[in-house]
Design a protein that fits this description.
The protein is mainly alpha-helical. The chain is about 55% helix and about 5% strand. A two-stranded parallel sheet has the order 1-2. α5 packs across α8. The two termini are about 15 Å apart. Keywords: DNA-binding, Phosphoprotein.
Length: about 170
């Protein structure tokens, strides 16, 4: 998964894929190879992280290791430093969202109204209202705006989607 892949973008795409297909390992390939991006990728369920600066040989090695059940990160990366506790709590809450709730939160982040989200997903507005209520409860926030802010905090510029989610 590329964090900038059209259709499913960034951490929202990773969260969605892990919720939808929990048994399939995911390797993130990204130009962003800072420790926090790698940590967040693993926290959101990636089984490996390969910086784009690495060649095809390292990518192949990572995929083989992940298929063998291992986790692969660049050998020069140290993840032993403690993560920010607030970010950890937010991550823990985000991963409880269902795939459909992730999609709704992505659309909320784009500023869409319930009616627009319902139309895009082919469901009733009441269904979207139920999803929004569940999202607010799971994230421990009181408003749509707070939910979008929480998602933006955790994901930086890797949350919002650039194009509609592929179905």
């Amino acid at each position: 998964l590329d964090l900038k892949m059209p259709g499913i973008s960034g951490f929202s795409g990773l969260i969605y894929l892990r919720a939808q297909y929990p048994a399939i390992p995911v390797v993130v390939v990204s130009a962003s190879d800072d420790v926090e991006t790698i940590r967040r990728s693993l926290d959101f369920g990636a089984s490996g992280f390969v910086p784009k600066r690495f060649g095809v040989e390292k990518l192949g090695e990572a995929i083989l290791r992940v298929l063998d059940g291992d986790v692969w990160i660049p050998p020069d990366v140290d993840l032993s430093a403690a993560a920010d506790p607030e970010m950890s709590r937010l991550r823990d809450r985000l991963v409880t969202l269902t795939p459909q709730q992730v999609r709704v939160l992505m659309m909320l982040s784009e500023g869409l109204l319930n009616k627009q989200i319902a139309y895009e997903l082919g469901v009733s507005e009441a269904t979207i209202k139920a999803h929004v209520s569940a999202i607010l409860q799971k994230l421990g926030v009181e408003s749509r705006t707070q939910a979008v802010i929480a998602a933006a905090k955790i994901s930086g510029n890797h949350w919002r989607q650039d194009e509609p989610v592929a179905q």
